[in-house]
């Protein structure tokens, strides 16, 4: 697996373990991690993950700094694809 992708998964795992992140957001983060770990073509994995994160950034009960972290992860994913 690509080292950039591994570091992105690491960032998502950090967010998932953050106690200030709501449970519904954590669930979406976990599904994004699973999408990135699938045994598929890189562009498909990245596209699925970007879609999951796009939906997640519209979540209203999220701390602003968490949303900023998600936007940073989206930027990293866009650089991979």
What does this structure look like?
With 81 residues, the chain is mostly helical. The chain has a single domain (3-80), classed as de novo design (two linked rop proteins) (Up-down Bundle), CATH 1.20.1440. The protein has helices at residues 3-17, 23-37, 42-57, 64-80.
Topology:
Elements: H1 3-17, H2 23-37, H3 42-57, H4 64-80
Helix pairs in contact: 1-2, 1-4, 2-3, 3-4
Considering the chains and any ligands shown, give keywords for the structure:
81 residues; mainly alpha; de novo design (two linked rop proteins); 4 helices; globular
The CATH class turns out to be Mainly Alpha
Order of helices and strands: HHHH
Q: Mean of residue pLDDT? A: 89
Which structural class do you get from the secondary structure elements?
mainly alpha
How many domain units?
Answer: 1
CA-atom Rg in angstroms: 12 Å
Number of helices: 4
Q: Tell me what the CATH architecture is.
A: Up-down Bundle
Brief write-up:
The protein is an all-alpha fold and 81 residues long. It is built from four helices and no strands.
